[in-house]
Amino acid sequence: AQSVAQPEDQVNVAEGNPLTVKCTYSVSGNPYLFWYVQYPNRGLQFLLKYITGDNLVKGSYGFEAEFNKSQTSFHLKKPSALVSDSALYFCAVRGEYNFNKFYFGSGTKLNVKP
Amino acid sequence: EAGVTQSPTHLIKTRGQQATLRCSPISGHTSVYWYQQALGLGLQFLLWYDEGEERNRGNFPPRFSGRQFPNYSSELNVNALELEDSALYLCASSPDGLRGANVLTFGAGSRLTVL
After folding, report:
1. Where are any strands of DSSP class E within chain A?
2. Does A94 touch chain B if contact means CB atoms closer than 8 Å?
3. Which of B106, B111, B112 to mutate to test the interface with A (most CBs of A within 10 A)?
4. How confident is the model over A76-113, as pLDDT tens digits?
5. If residue B37 lies in a helix (H) or strand (E), which one and from where to where?
6. Which residue in chain B has the smallest CA separation from A100?
């Protein structure tokens, strides 16, 4: 079965501190991994993706994510959080063989306090 | 380039009525996906259309239906509305399904409230 888990419903960080939003996955074959961000009453915006290559992927707004095959994880990171980063973050995965099925995690609410 | 556009932004209906939501994909995208995001829940996959055909549907009752037009725009119809259908309905498009490195591009959503 293919699935995505975001173990934290909410993450709280102070502005200027590093942030991590966790994601683990289960998929057949090689994973295609994605992070999306959702601001209040808005659709999802694409942040970054891992298809192949370097395990560290850089995306929009200074975000990056690290693919770890042995731990089946794809954690989202940012060295210095901004208050404007406060939003709902979704991890998503699709499998190499079942490429038309996109599985989303339940979302993690990131709160960045000034 | 215009993004994925959805209409209406907000829709208020009463129980038992029908709702119709519309989506225009990015130019050149042939696949349209519908998701439901109810309060406190993640994204639940509803329907996938490609080249005018329904290719897959999620675990939703038949009163959720839709279609894709020759210009690749799409409609989502919800019949016999129930209170729990209140949600943000998100449309996404991609070129030619999700092959390779294609990603989903989402619209801003249509907020359906059922009273």
Report:
1. 3-5, 10-14, 19-21, 24-26, 31-38, 44-50, 56-58, 64-68, 73-78, 87-95, 103-104, 108-113
2. yes
3. B106
4. 999 999 999 999 999 999 877 666 678 899 999 999 99
5. strand B31-37
6. B98
- Which of A111, A103, A96 is closest to A36 using CA atoms? A103
pLDDT band at B97 (very low <50, low <70, confident <90, very high): low
Look at B106 and A43 and tell me if their CB atoms are within 8 Å: yes
Q: In a mutagenesis test of the A interface, which of B46, B96, B104 is the best target, namely the one with the most A β-carbons within 10 Å? A: B104
Query: What is the CA A96 to chain-centroid distance, rounded?
Result: 18
- CB contact under 8 Å between B106 and A90, yes or no, is no
The answer for residues whose C-beta is within 8 angstroms of residue B3's C-beta and 6 or more apart is B26, B105, B107
Tokens of residue A20, six digits? 């991590």
What is the β-pairing status of strands A10-14 and A56-58?
Answer: unpaired
Please say whether the beta carbons of A75 and A25 come within 8 A.
no
CB B52 within 8 A of CB B66: no
Within a 10 A sphere around the Cβ of B2, how many other Cβ atoms? 8
A45 in B contact zone (CB under 8 Å)? yes
- Say whether residue B57 is in contact with chain A using an 8 A CB cutoff: no
> Is B99 at the interface with chain A, CB within 8 A?
yes
Q: Identify the three-state secondary structure at position A27.
A: coil
* pLDDT band, very low/low/confident/very high, at B99 (cuts 50, 70, 90): low
Share of chain B above pLDDT 90, in %: 72
